[in-house]
Amino acid sequence: QVSPALRTPRLPVWLCSASGRFGVLFGTDRRLLSDWRAERTFQLYFYSGRHEQTQTALLTVDTHSHHWEEAQRGGPCSPGRRRPALEMAIRTKWAGATVSWSGTQPVF
User: Fold this and answer.
1) Which pLDDT tens digit goes with each residue over 32-60?
2) Is pLDDT above 80 for 24?
3) In what helix (H) or strand (E) does residue 91 lie, and over which residues does it extend?
4) d(Cα 87, Cα 57) in Å, to the nearest integer?
5) What are the DSSP calls for 43-76, one per residue?
6) Rounded to two decimals, what is the model's pTM?
7) pLDDT beyond 80 at 68
8) How many angstroms separate the CA atoms of 91 and 95, rounded?
9) Where is 15: in which H helix or E strand?
10) Among 27, 54, 93, 96, which is least packed, fewest CB within 10 Å?
11) Domain boundaries, the chain
């Protein structure tokens, strides 16, 4: 028997598998589950539990960034620029979003 709290999470949580590595991507804002307006700019945390990751990574996701501004800065739209697999996984839910790693080294 599965608990109702496990079937309907109170906070947004995703299990991720990218490049053969597993991790947990989660947010602390409950509005991400029910209010689309909360999806403009928000923060997500990522933790893999691997010894290379010494602290939980704080990611800032901006779903309303302009792709032409990102291209001028040499961002993810730049030709030949590789992005971490976790960012690409985030973009499967929020297409075109920019992801800032807030000073931590990208994982994966």
Assistant:
1) 888 888 889 999 999 887 777 777 889 99
2) yes
3) helix 85-93
4) 12
5) EEEEE---TT--SPEEEEEETT--HHHHHHTT-T
6) 0.74
7) no
8) 5
9) strand 13-18
10) 54
11) 4-100
